[in-house]
Amino acid sequence: MNLSDSLPSILVVDDEVHSQAAMRRTLDEDFTVFTASDADEARALLERQAVSVILCDQRMPGLTGVAFLKEVRERWPDTVRIVISGYTDTEDIIAGINDAGIYQYILKPWVPDHLLQTVRTAAEAQTLQRSMNQLDLELRTSTPVLRQRVAHKLAQARSVFDFERIERGSNSPLNAVCSMAERVARYDLSVLVLGESGSGKELIARAIHYASPRGGGPFVVENCAAIPDTLLESELFGHKRGSFTGAYEDRPGLFQRANGGTVFLDEIGETSPAFQVRVLRVLQEGEVRPVGAARPVPVNVRVIAATHRDLEQRVHEGLFRKDLYYRLAGVSITVPPLRERAGDIAPIARRLVRDVGAELGRPGATLNDEALACLMGYPWPGNIRELRNEIARAVALSDGDEIQAQTFSLRVLHGQAGLAASGQAADQALSLPSSGTLSERLDAIETMVLRETLLRHRWNKTHAARELGLSRVGLRGKMVRFGLEG
Predict the structure, then answer these.
(1) φ, ψ at 366 (rounded to 5°)
(2) Please, how many CA atoms are within 13 Å of residue 174, restricted to the half-sphere of its CB?
(3) What per-residue string of b and e applies to 290-301 under the rule 16 or more CB within 10 Å gives b?
(4) Are 69 and 97 spatial neighbours (Cβ–Cβ below 8 Å)?
(5) Residue 238 and residue 291 in contact, taking contact as beta carbons nearer than 8 Å
(6) Same CATH fold assignment for domains 167-336 and 341-481
(7) Do residues 11 and 24 touch, judged by C-beta distance below 8 A?
(8) What is the Cα–Cα distance from 157 to 151, expressed in whole angstroms?
(9) Domain 341-481 has CATH 1.10.3720.10
(10) Pairwise CA distance, residues 163 & 165, whole Å
């Protein structure tokens, strides 16, 4: 299978080999990653390979990152462009945001989770933009019958984010969360979504948007932690042509792009006082003033904010403005972490296997019972994002369509074994027996010990046999006897 046929392609342009390697490690589970050391090498690759997103270092031999991305904008305009810099040359980059059409600016040292999420969002934005451009063209040039068909396609796209489509168990704590969010969606109130990173806050925010009267309008996402203060005004409010060096045309800001729809401000708890003041002013006045504009521009948006921080505590510590907190928290919704939603793991895992399997060209991929029990026994500190990455790894490493426990990473196998040994998974296969004859209970305990040891050693029979004081033949005999031989 050629993974480049199913995964979005990313080009990393950086003259430092260790930086290339670090970004490849961060991105290669979700993307096909190409690398280049300078503009010439990158240009040659782009001539023969389409890519979704370019990550380009600002300081390189020859052309700077901004200068190269300006050329990319002219020759490959559909590519999403991101510049990375560890220097204070923000003036050149600010000018290049419009000139080179830069989607995002990332400061060094970058954080792997933030980099991965930024690139994911960029790739999704490119896919959605292409789809919307095509649909818009069809709407403007088609007959009434075709326009009706296209409108139906848009309705189907919105239904993807329906509350009923959010995977969860029958008695999930998310039922109450979704019920409350659905009731709130119909009213034009600000919403603050709280919860750990990767727990599904953006999914809830999108569902609120599409269930609201604004559902036909844009849904614009901004990762607040990723915006340097030097870029705030242009990013949030836009700018007018000629307002600064490199501003060759008008550029709408975040709130203007979301006019009539919803702005989702992710990681609002990480923002600086300058950011908080500017957002508060927009919420209070309902208007923005683009950089270089003579008068403010009215905007009509709904704001949904999210954070993994305790904002009340940050208000108490003087790190977050109290007036902005009360503006944002018209309604607060807390998404529980995955470890508190054990009943959700199975349906989410099965859905992810289907989705990831389709992406990787393995549409028949399934989880066997032991693999599912292993997933349900791990606490998932990284929540759904970590679960998705683990399943993507397992699908890629599995020899057949059936995913087995030994394809999971060591931390998941250890986590599952630890929970079972401590009695926290009493309703799973590794729990201690509470009934039966002495012989039956001893067999059950022996089965539990064998399975726990095999899981911990990732089904390496030699290592497991050595730990248990058995020969490989003896271990294999016991595995056959207790039905553990796959």
Answers:
(1) -140, 160
(2) 27
(3) bbbeeeebebeb
(4) no
(5) yes
(6) no
(7) no
(8) 10
(9) no
(10) 5
Whether residue 416 has pLDDT greater than 80: no
Residue keyed to tokens 């069809």 = 138
| CA–CA separation, 258 and 40 (whole Å) | 37
Q: Average pLDDT, stretch 66-80?
A: 83
Per-residue pLDDT reduced to its tens digit, 108-162: 778 888 788 788 877 876 776 666 555 555 555 555 665 566 566 556 555 667 7
Specify whether the CB–CB gap between 235 and 254 falls below 8 A.
Answer: yes
**Structure token digits, residue 149:** 């068909």
The pLDDT value recorded for residue 195 is 94
Lowest mean pLDDT segment, chosen from 5-14, 191-200, 346-355, 470-479: 5-14
DSSP code string of 398-440: -SSSEE-GGGS-HHHHHHHHHHHHTTTTTTSTTSPP-SS-HHH
Give the Cα separation of 355 and 307 in Å (integer): 27
CATH number of 167-336: 3.40.50.300
Can you tell me which residue has the tokens 């670090």? 22
Sign of CA dihedral 469, 471, 472, 474: negative
CATH architecture of 3-115: 3-Layer(aba) Sandwich (3.40)
pLDDT at 231 over 50: yes
**In whole angstroms, what is the distance from residue 54 CA to residue 329 CA?**
36
Mean pLDDT of 376-403: 89
